[in-house]
Amino acid sequence: MNDLLFDGPASLVVTSIAAPNAVLRELAGQCKARGLSFFVIGDVPSPKDFLLDGCDFYSLDRQRTTGLKIAELLPTRHYARKNIGYLLAMRSRPSWLLETDDDNLPLPGFWASRERMQRVRSLSGFGWANVYAYFSEANIWPRGLPLDAIQARLPEFESLPELQTDCPIQQGLADGNPDVDAIFRMIFPLPAYFIPKRQVALGDGAWCPFNSQNTAWSPAAYPLLYLPSYCSFRMTDIWRSFVAQRIAWENGWSVLFRSADVVQERNEHSLMKDFADEVPGYLHNRAIGEKLAGLKLKAGIENIGENLIRCYEEFVRLTVVGAEEIALVKAWTADIAALA
């Protein structure tokens, strides 16, 4: 996918089953004022009369008229229907694709221009790294980090080398009610706030889960947006992040983590249900990383689709994702190819 062909204004993608709320209205108003396309992807429980100036809402019926192969295959009542939004956004050839959720209120920094090349403190070859430790002195970790990696001592932030780094994937943190797992929420108090005006890049051999609630993607990395469907809601974006990091290493890319530029006002959740949905990650995330690291993948943007399929075939072999996933990945890669 040639970055030079993707030079339009940024696009924003959200999936939501809510009626227009304060966050959605703020996102829509900001996108309209800034000339950004804003796609909201609905699902079975979405209001039939959803209407919000400044956003392009896709009901289930409308999703099925898009001509996208994946639209006919994705299960309903699943967060991974967001994949349709990504593909629709790509059709507008955006220079960056932004994503968030309907309970994340954007701060001014969310709308700042993004630069793919960054001179930034960088960590490589470390294994599992609790990146939140670079943004907080509290005992806090991101959802999806293996539990036995929480206490692993990181190199001091000031000791990390500053390198010119290619960062086509950029994860912003969230203040207030950040993306932590159910174990954290049941044990420690919230809200929590992160050190401002800081960023760090993770390169080859350094793992940290990242989420879909505040992430910016440059065109070269668009194929890595794919969210798996045949796994739990609490793992879909986490396991996507592992696949994205592994393929990024083949291309000399790093994932940039940056200080919070949204405040999460979290929708209602059952913490015990969240915990149950996170159990596959608690049990398998370290092994998944080891298996992905051992795969023989190919460098080059032209090989990302093949690499995606190989990674998800490994998930199926590990029996953490259903075999039905492969047809979806292949439909995704076909839809990506049709954009060319």
Chain-averaged pLDDT: 96
Portion of residues within helices: 25-40%
Number of helices: 8
Structural class: alpha/beta
- Give the tally of β-strands: 13
| Biggest sheet descriptor | 11 strands, mixed
Distance between the termini: 7 Å
Would you mind describing this structure in some detail?
Strand 1 (11-15), helix 1 (22-34) and strand 2 (37-41) form a beta-alpha-beta unit. The protein has helices spanning 22-34, 60-63, 82-91, 182-187, 236-250, 271-294, 304-317, 325-338, and strands spanning 11-15, 37-41, 56-58, 97-100, 104-106, 117-123, 127-128, 162-166, 169-175, 199-202, 206-207, 214-217, 255-264. The longest helix has 24 residues, at 271-294. By secondary structure, it is an alpha/beta fold. The mean pLDDT is 96.
Helices and strands, with pairings:
Layout: E1 11-15, H1 22-34, E2 37-41, E3 56-58, H2 60-63, H3 82-91, E4 97-100, E5 104-106, E6 117-123, E7 127-128, E8 162-166, E9 169-175, H4 182-187, E10 199-202, E11 206-207, E12 214-217, H5 236-250, E13 255-264, H6 271-294, H7 304-317, H8 325-338
Parallel strand pairs: 1-2, 1-4, 2-3, 6-10, 7-11, 9-13
Antiparallel strand pairs: 4-12, 5-13, 6-8, 9-12, 10-13
Helix pairs in contact: 5-6, 7-8
